[in-house]
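Observation: inputs received (chain + heme C).
Thought: call the complex predictor directly.
Action: predict_structure
Action Input:
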Amino acid sequence: MTRLLQRSLFLAAIALSGMAQADDLAMGQKLVSNHCAGCHTFEKDGPPGQGPNLFGLIGRKAASQTNFTYSSAYSNKMAGNVWDEARLDAWLTDAQTLVPGSAMVYSQDDPAKRQKIIQYIKSLH
Ligand code: HEC
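Observation:
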């Protein structure tokens, strides 16, 4: 293969993976609006709904939103933890398994959908 061909294949691969990422984020946003937005807001300083605002969640302390009253099951188990991707994956797999008695009842058994939701939430800063 010539260098030039190698180089253009390389650039095409980068462009394609960039497009795939943008697609995944768009899918993630759609999933979030269908599965989460009924109870959560996602914009900076958005008001709580049935659940707390989720802007900037990754890296944030669990149970830390002062304008939301968490269930005692949730605060007892989760306060002090920091949200990362693995914890969010476990939570979305089945909130009631991670925190029995939590006020959030949600489970998503499709790992690809969970990843898209997680990556979208991670992109919000
Ligand atoms: C029917 C309402 C409802 C839906 C739908 C819902 N949640 Fe929740 N969520 C809650 C409630 C209520 C809590 C507070 C849990 C508690 O206090 O026990 C919560 C808490 C959370 C927390 C903890 C935040 C913190 O500050 O510690 C995260 C993260 C979360 N939800 C993510 C999601 C995501 C992502 C989705 C969509 C895939 C979703 N939730 C769908 C009601 C909901």
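Thought: report the result.
Final Answer: The chain has one domain: 3-122. The chain has a mean pLDDT of 94.
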